[in-house]
Amino acid sequence: MEKNKYNFLPARTLGTEDFEEAFGEPLSPALRAEVKKFDFRCAELDQESQARCREEIQEAISSKDFQRAGAHRIDVWERGWGENFEALKKGNPLDQALLPRYFGKHSLIIWRRRYFQPLVGDFDYHLIDIVRDWLFEKYLRSVPAICEFGCGTGRHLVAAHAFSPKAEIIGADWAEASAKLLQSMNENGVIPGAHGFVFDFFKPDYKLVLPPGAGVYTISALEQTGEKANLFVDYLLANRPAVVFHVEPIREMLDPNDECDKISLAYMEKRGYLKGFLTYLREKARSKEITILQEKRTFIGGDPFLEGYMIIAWKPVGDR
Which 8-state DSSP code applies to residue 213? Predict the structure, then answer.
């Protein structure tokens, strides 16, 4: 998908009103200031190019081989986060050292079922930052401990510490390199007191006990678990955190009759991404084991193949 093959509408900048439409509520003054701080200039493909882009993506999904998600890919993530760890050890600027290599991979993003070309290099990087910080404000303001599962480089935990400096910061990931990153950021004062643990979504270690009242989240991590995310939910139910939120691609929120949604569904199937997750949580809600606080489709995706930034928030019923 070469971007110069497309025709574009006049460039524009995504502003606070765009994110308020995506989130379905007003932004706080702090979040409004954050949106204005970042450069969200972009250009929307015109109608003809939208259709052509969809056709090309559908063809790519049908004809190309994609690596399927699953436990067999641990070495890929170990190498990836290992590169970030080496960059941090070399003293690279923090924002560069912690940047996952998959950001900036694509020239287009999805916004409300339309394809846009970012006009700045860090567009998708900051796009998820706004979604994350909105959810931090909603759900993590008063928790004594914040834990991210599938924390990768730990960059979201750096933001969590800045948001709540007194909260205990915990990062869990199946790659040992991720735990090393957290330990390094603890030692060099980036996140004082941070703890990093190895945690396998496919074989949850119940010996890892969360602090009482912890807030837990995942961001583009559970997608890798396919049909096994229920194992993580059961682990969390045993620990009974105060609140949990997920930013993930959710099949149940997509419309199989919509042309753009069909692409996300086909790509998720091809990659073996998260399946049946929301259905499982709804079953737990019906059995009064959890309360679902929010199911929200933002219609935002940092990848033209996948609308990935959908929100589920929930909490266990009863006290720990």
Answer: T
Q: Give yes or no for a contact between 135 and 247, defined as CB atoms under 8 angstroms apart.
A: yes
pTM here? Answer: 0.94
CATH architecture of 68-104+122-316: 3-Layer(aba) Sandwich (3.40)
**Amino acid of residue 121:** G
Instruction: Identify the pLDDT of residue 302.
Output: 86
Residue found under tokens 């949850």: 204
pLDDT digits (tens, 9 = 90+) for 231-286: 999 999 999 999 999 999 999 999 999 999 999 999 999 999 999 999 999 999 99
Pick the closest to residue 278 from 268, 292, 266, 265 (CA basis). Answer: 292
Alpha helices (H) along the chain: 16-23, 29-37, 47-63, 74-89, 94-97, 123-139, 155-163, 176-187, 229-239, 259-271, 277-286
58-63-64 Cα angle (round to 5): 100
